[in-house]
Amino acid sequence: MKDTDFMLSGTIKEAKLTEGRGDDTTFHIGIEYDSWGYQGFTGYYFGEGEKNARKAAKFLDDVAAFFGCDSPANLIGKKVIALRNERHGAIVGLMNPDTEAKFIAAEWFEKNYGIKPLDEKSEIM
């Protein structure tokens, strides 16, 4: 696949849960691009507390399973194609280059919580 501004190939360098705003839990998947630099896939905040930390962990576990890994730690070193927002370049999903399947964060939220996070993100928490 040839890189475009909105689909960039790279390698996953980090995959972890992290603190977001305040005590909110979120995830961080760091991608080192083949063509330039590094970008993090993050920004969906799950809220405070253990229950919300489990939601963030499920998200990261589901990303790992999508790439055929049994844990997020095994994502490190995996080849990936970052799917980026056309307006501002933020990562909104990942594509597995082996299968060409796409993991779109907003679709994951809709499937798991029945909501569209961009429209009603406060309901996730």
List the helices and strands and how they pair.
Blueprint: E1 7-19, E2 25-33, E3 38-41, H1 50-66, E4 79-84, E5 91-95, E6 102-104, H2 105-113, H3 117-120
Antiparallel strand pairs: 1-2, 1-4, 2-3, 4-5, 5-6
Please describe what this structure looks like.
This protein has helices spanning 50-66, 105-113, 117-120; strands at residues 7-19, 25-33, 38-41, 79-84, 91-95, 102-104. It is an alpha+beta fold and 125 residues long. It has one domain. Strands 3-2-1-4-5-6 form a 6-stranded antiparallel beta sheet. β4 and β5 form a beta hairpin. The longest helix has 17 residues, at 50-66. The termini are far apart.
